[in-house]
Design brief:
single chain, mainly alpha, 4 helices, elongated
Length: about 70
């Protein structure tokens, strides 16, 4: 069983995370944080999309805003 978990460790440490090791030792701050910037752009795009969808439903008056709209209120 120990060999199984060491195999998983070897896969991730020496295989899948080598791009992060390369980026970690670069001298450029922008290059080292490339993955973070990509995730921030994806999250910002998802946030903008979600806000536009909420605005679309709000403009069509499809939301039930009465105080009895939800059973827990």
């Amino acid at each position: 069983m120990k060999a199984f978990f060491e195999g998983i460790q070897d896969l991730f440490v020496n295989g899948l995370f080598w791009p992060y090791d390369f980026l970690r030792f670069t001298k450029n701050w922008w290059a080292a944080n490339t993955v973070n910037w990509i995730f921030m752009i994806i999250c910002f795009a998802a946030f903008v999309y979600w806000m536009l969808e909420l605005k679309k439903y709000n403009d069509n008056n499809e939301e039930d805003k009465s105080c009895t709209a939800h059973s827990y209120l």
